[in-house]
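*Target chain*
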Amino acid sequence: QVQLVESGGGLVQAGGSRRLSCAASASGSSISIGTMGWYRQPPGKQRELVATVTSGHSTNYADSVKGRFTISRDNARNTVYLEMNSLKPEDTALYYCYARRIIGVDYWGQGTQVTVSS
C-alpha cells in the first residue's frame, strides 16, 4: 500500500503564489512509481486534471494552468511538487495528489485545500 501525504495548501490572494508538495511512501517495501500528478475539484464541480509528470520528467498540463503552474518531481524522494503562480479565484479547489505505480495501480492523496481570494 502506498500513502500520499500532501502539504502546502491554504489561503492566498489573487495574483499570489503557492507551492504544493506530495510525498509517496510505503512501509516495508520499495515502490516504483511511474506517473505522478495533481488533480483538483472546484466547489460543486467534478475532479479535473491539473498536471502530470512521468518518471522521465515529461510533463502535461491542463490548458487552464499552462504558463502559470509548474510541476516537478524528485524521483529519489518519490515527491512531486506543484508551483502555482498568478493564482486566480477560479483556481480555488481541493487539490489531490496522484501516483501510479509501474504495475498499474493508482493511488490518491486526501486532498489539500487551496483558496484564492479576490
Notes: The chain has no helices and eleven strands. The chain has a mean pLDDT of 95.
